[in-house]
Write a structure and sequence with these properties.
about 140 residues, extended
Amino acid sequence: MAYVAVSGGKEAIEESIRLLDLYKSGTDKDIEVEAIENKLSLLVDRVMGEAGLYSKTYAALALKQCEGSVEEAVFLLRAYRSTLTRNYYTNTVNTAAMRVVRRISAAFKDIIGGQILGAAYDYTHRLINFDADGDNPAVL
């Protein structure tokens, strides 16, 4: 795919942003950052992990701003992370005292302590559950 320059300059960019804002505010209902943070925890965790910044609130805020686009939310959180000062250091941690929730190794079949699957959608049916929200929407 070739790159094509956009004509219209600053005015075209401002109109594009205005149109995006119009699409975002197309409903009276607005999801709260706290709801994203608490109800979509796996998504928030994925954004934090990919962005390399542990902040559930900021990850939820990025997801809200990007209308749920994981890639865009990660981009925003990485961009924010790059503005932070780097004045910390890490210490070696004794992992024997850790509570491991998930440990999977693609490189080694038999790792010390064994592999732990943890909570995963890998083995569930990947079908939409229309009753998950309590309302059963009309079939399209």
